[in-house]
Amino acid sequence: MSTATLTPDDIQMSAAQLTVNGTDIGATDGGVKFSPTVTIKPVSVDQLSMPVRHFITQEAAKVTANLTEYNLTKIDSCTPGGTYTLDAGGVKKSIYYGGGQISLTSDYVELVITPLIDGSATLATDNNLKITIFKCVPIKHPDLAFTKDGVRFVPVEFEAIKYSTKAAGKQLYLLGDSTATA
User: Fold this and answer.
1) Is 176 in contact with 156 (CB distance < 8 Å)?
2) Which of 77, 112, 116, 138 could form a disulfide with 20, with the two C-beta atoms 3.0–4.6 Å apart?
3) If you compute the radius of gyration of the chain from its CA atoms, what whole number of angstroms results?
4) What is the pLDDT of residue 35?
5) Which of 144, 138, 154, 148 has the alpha carbon at shortest distance from 30?
6) Between β-strands 109-115 and 16-20, what pairing exists: parallel, antiparallel or unpaired?
7) How far is Cα 32 from Cα 123, in angstroms, rounded to an integer?
8) What is the pLDDT of residues 98-152, one digit of tens each?
9) 95 — alpha (psi -120 to 50), left (phi > 0) or beta?
10) Is the CB of residue 167 less than 8 Å from the CB of residue 74?
11) Full-prediction pTM beyond 0.90?
12) Do 30 and 39 meet the contact criterion of CB atoms below 8 Å apart?
């Protein structure tokens, strides 16, 4: 009788750190969710009653998280089209929204998701566990709820776009270690 092969050390469970252009965005609540999608189109011909091949017609990736640290510098890096200001004294901050357009260069960011390995926020050192989205854009303005019994958080969302300096087949995101070679 055959049995399934299990590798318990490969079963993962943890929260994650999310970095935007190399800067940790801080604490999150509800996890960091990475959601890739692919649309596959079956191709049929009149002579057969089944598909003869399939084509990938669309690929996408999205990351969502809830920021729990209300920090305008971090919120600015995770929201589109804002104008961030830090006064000369380095204390007063503001982000103005409205009427702007997403720049073709300045609003695109790189995201890296790194799992934590314990309950003390220790980052995994195994780069095979990382997820890197090479180029993406934040797509949500701050959505804040104020309640007496709940932690205030800022939901953030990013959508990946083509990173054209990478070779075909490697332009959206990477699971694992970017230094791996054949």
Assistant:
1) no
2) 77
3) 20
4) 96
5) 154
6) antiparallel
7) 14
8) 877 666 566 789 999 999 988 888 998 899 999 999 999 998 888 887 888 878 8
9) beta
10) no
11) no
12) no
Q: How many CB atoms lie within 10 A of CB 65?
A: 25
| Three-class secondary structure assignment of 86-108 | ECCCCCCEEEECCCCCCCCCCCC
Query: Exposed (0-12), middle (13-18) or buried (19+): which is 91, by Cβ within 10 Å?
Result: exposed
pLDDT at residue 104, rounded to an integer? 55
Residue 161 pLDDT level (bands cut at 50, 70, 90): very high
59 close to 38: Cβ distance less than 8 angstroms: yes
Q: HSE (CB half, 13 Å, CA atoms) of 149?
A: 0
| Percentage of residues in the chain having pLDDT higher than 70 | 96
134 three-class SS: strand
Distances (CA, A) of 154 to 20, 41, 62, 76, 146: 15, 37, 17, 11, 11
pLDDT, mean over the chain: 89
Task: Give me 121's structure tokens.
Answer: 């926020």
Please give the distance of CA 3 from its chain centroid, rounded to a whole number.
37
